[in-house]
Amino acid sequence: MDITIKQENQVLTVYLKGELDHHAVSKIKDAIDLQILKASVKKLVLDMSGVTFMDSSGIGLIVGRYNRIKSFGGSMTIKNPSQSLLKILKMSGIDQLMKIC
Amino acid sequence: MQPINRMKIEFDSKSTNEAFARVVVAAFAAQLDPTLEDLADLKTAVSEAVTNAIIHGYEQKPGTIYMECILYPNSIKVIIEDHGVGIEDIEKARTPAFTTKPELERSGMGFSVMESFMDSLQIESEKGKGTKITMTKKFFRD
């Protein structure tokens, strides 16, 4: 899994590329959290256009980051999930927690 | 119904093998020419079962995961087994969003995903002995 992080003002955009499973999550979680803390981020955007696979480990990653940014009074958005990703995002109720576009 | 093909492998309980397991099952199932959506569902369910064996069964310690696939003319049966700690309360474990490892940010959605993405799910487990997951997926419907 490749991760690219871009920060503009208080918006942090994380571009993920590859397969988002338990193996990948353990590697990228800390990188995102560190940046959230460093940059006093108010909005986290997770761009998933490059994610080709995701299981419930990805749900854990998303909910964990959502809780973190929410505790700082911020918000989170998911962008460009594929149809198969959308299926698992919806069945987990993530679409009730944040905007998916 | 008579099986038309069968395979059985075992591999180490390592997170790198989550991708290996789902790719192997998808490659084996491909001979039935399923739709891409059905293959994606199958890969997700296999990934969940193998991840459970690594995180919960063996608690991220060394162990061996046993995986068997049986192909029928219209469906596949996947059996994923570990000889780890076992599940104390299967009904509780099946509850959506229940997890014994919130500190690892587990969503507790593993069994719900397996149930939702496959056509059947059977969980057998004994404390201290291990867990056996049997799932089936139909590729063609009447």
List keywords for this structure.
heterodimer; A: 101 residues; alpha/beta; five-stranded mixed β-sheet; 4 helices; 46% helix; globular; B: 142 residues; alpha+beta; five-stranded antiparallel β-sheet; 5 strands; 34% helix
What can you tell me about this protein's structure?
Chain A is an alpha/beta fold. Chain A has helices at 22-38, 56-71, 83-91, 94-97; strands at 2-8, 11-20, 43-54, 75-79, 99-100. Chain A has a five-stranded mixed beta sheet. In chain A, helix 1 (22-38) packs parallel to helix 2 (56-71). The longest helix of chain A has 17 residues, at 22-38. Chain B is of the alpha+beta class and 142 residues long. Helix content of chain B is 34%, strand content 28%. Chain B has helices at 17-29, 36-57, 90-94, 110-117, and strands spanning 5-12, 64-71, 75-82, 120-126, 130-138. The chains are: A alpha/beta (101), B alpha+beta (142). The interface between A and B is medium-sized, with 22 and 24 residues.
| Ends apart, CA distance between termini of chain A | 22 Å
Could you give the order of the helices and strands of chain A?
Answer: EEHEHEHHE
- Largest interface: chains, residues each: A-B, 22 and 24 residues
End-to-end Cα distance of chain B, whole Å, is 16 Å
What do the pLDDT scores of chain A average to? 93
- Estimate what percentage of residues of chain B fall within beta strands: 25-35%
What order do the helices and strands of chain B follow?
A: EHHEEHHEE
The tally of helices of chain B reads: 4
Q: How much of the polypeptide of chain A forms β-strand, as a percent range?
A: 35-45%
What shape does the CA trace of chain B take?
globular
What's the count of strands of chain A? 5
Instruction: Describe the main β-sheet of chain A briefly.
Output: 5 strands, mixed
